[in-house]
Amino acid sequence: MSTKRLLALLSAVVTALALAVLLPASASAAVCGTPWSSGAVYTGGAAVSYNGHNWTAKWWTQNEPPSTGGSGVWADQGPCGGPTGPGPTPTATRTTDPGGFPVSQAQFDQMFPNRNPFYTYQGLLDATSAYPGFAATGSDTVRRQEAAAFLANVSHETGGLLYVVEQNTSNYPHYCDTSQPYGCPAGQAAYYGRGPIQLSWNFNYKAAGDALGLDLLNHPDLVQTDPAVAWKTGLWYWNTQNGPGTMTAHDAMVNGRGFGETIRSINGALECNGNNTAQMQHRISLYQGFVQILGTMPGGNLSC
Q1: Which residue among the candidates 64, 146, 157, 271 is catalytic per the annotation?
Q2: How far apart are CA 257 and CA 274, in angstroms?
Q3: What is the pTM of this model?
Q4: How is the chain split into domains, by residue range?
Q5: CATH 2.10.10.20 fits 30-81, yes or no
Q6: Average pLDDT over every residue of 135-151
């Protein structure tokens, strides 16, 4: 082979190698997840495949095919191909790494040894995606204190996470405010207390549902059938509602106002100002026990 032809061949090889480095390799499609089913109920973070793409649900959905239009309930995770597999890992699921939720599964089980199986730890983790600042704001101590404060209050409200719905059924018809323009489409007795902070009244179901992207006004039963939805309604109140207090319970904990102010935000004068010290003290005792489980101190201003 002549020197000229050899140099030309070497030049072609070098050019081909350079292009191989500079040009991106064609990406192979991800493995398709479990096919979407019209009859299945999906909660936030659920992964499916549909029309050659993987999708994850943003919140509860049923009979809504994955699409980027409409209600926007599905998030497109990109094209997929090949055999059906486990699908992508839901991005909304929170983990218990050092920078994540400051309560482990074991600690949660220790706090609620007799809880109703409905109140799952994974449901709580899934619900935190709706309020990413919850138990994730401030120092590690503040984060643990807020998690303990929330769980202590919900433990008090539900008998240690035993009750999913309000036990006094005679109260059920009272929670329909007919003066609201949207009325009570699910029925006059449909808006009784449900979930970890016992969401009640038609206007609260509507407000919580609007904030969470869920139709709780027409489907209040979701709060007692979907663990993540139940936890989300509790976090909705904790993070956004002052209640009878002057600030949200979240703000009380992250701004140093103390556990006592969370009691005021939840039950106000019914327990504070000396009106029911036994109930108030029960909440405080739970909080003190929970911060001990989480390896931190309760801080000041425990009573209201």
Answers
A1: 157
A2: 19
A3: 0.68
A4: 30-81, 105-293
A5: yes
A6: 96
- Using only C-alpha atoms, the chain has a radius of gyration, in whole angstroms, of 26
Rounded Cα gap, residues 224 and 88, in angstroms: 28
Phi, psi (degrees; rounded to nearest 5) at 30: -65, 160
Taking CB atoms within 8 Å and a gap of at least 24, the contacts of 188-191 are: 190/220, 190/221, 191/220
How far is residue 3 from each of residues 6, 9, 11, 260, 271, measured CA to CA in Å? 5, 10, 12, 89, 96
Torsion of CA 196, 171, 192, 282, to 10 degrees: -10
> How sure is the predictor about 129, in pLDDT bands with cuts at 50, 70 and 90?
very high
Q: Chain-wide mean pLDDT for the chain?
A: 83
- To the question of domain 105-293 being in CATH 2.60.120.1440, the answer is no
Q: Is 157 marked active-site?
A: yes
Count CB-CB contacts under 10 A for residue 35. Answer: 11
- Under DSSP, the state recorded for 128 is G
